[in-house]
What we know:
With 280 residues, the chain is an all-alpha fold. It has one domain. The protein has 13 helices and no strands. Helix 4 packs across helix 5 (110-116), helix 4 packs across helix 8 and helix 12 packs antiparallel against helix 13. The protein is globular, with a radius of gyration of 19 Å. Its main location: membrane.
Amino acid sequence: MFDLIRAAIPVFLLSLLIEWAAYRYLSHDHDAPHEHSGYGTRDTITSLSMGVGNVLINLFWKGVVVAIYAALYSLTPLRLPEQAWWVWVLLFLADDYAYYWYHRVSHEVRLFWASHVVHHSSQHYNLSTALRQTWVPMTALPFWLVLPLLGFAPWMVLLAQAWNLLYQFFVHTERVGRLPAPVEYIFNTPSHHRAHHGSNDVYLDRNYGGILIIWDRLHRTFQPETEPVRYGLVHNIHTHQPVQVAFHEFAALWRDVRTARNWRDRLHYLTRPPGWHPER
């Protein structure tokens, strides 16, 4: 089966090199609003390592996902015509809405955050940051299960997930300012996604959209870029070791669950937002 993301890897690397060259040869002082502008060698190597690990893990995991989607598709009597244009419009909207909720839950439920935190662990923001992906992709599975049940063929669902990720690669940049107002109103843009990656109080848990930002406007999770963005985590991990980046929050979560006073607190550590602790 054709894998759009793997096919796009040369495009990712070429775009990354172009952006690096723009910082290296075209930057001026006013292009660097903070100390982490541009590329850091160790940070970039870590991001690329996380991306390679994600691709290798997905060589196996995608097979599991295909099998699950195919099983669900075989159980439902619904079949949406693959040749109909309106089906592809519905798929675009359904996939993007599924992504919104996956992304939102990944910030608001600590068990899911333990996987997603990897993507926010860099204090830099450039195209290499887009490749800093989780090594535990299983947390995404539940949010798309309804699509094959609604009659979308499994290969269509996988393709929609891929074009969504492909689009999002290009919003991870500081080299693009605000776009025309109609674009900013409808679509996720570099400006919106910079705010999403901010650890400033005003930016926390905002702008979850993948391709469209209208879901955030609808659910009141939208925040425009209004002040300089401080990238990274509220409490940064200060490591470039890929294994620590991949699993540090799972380790912290396990410590909290293991030392919790009762089963209720253990459950809350798993299901409440990051930073939750029982009242002392």
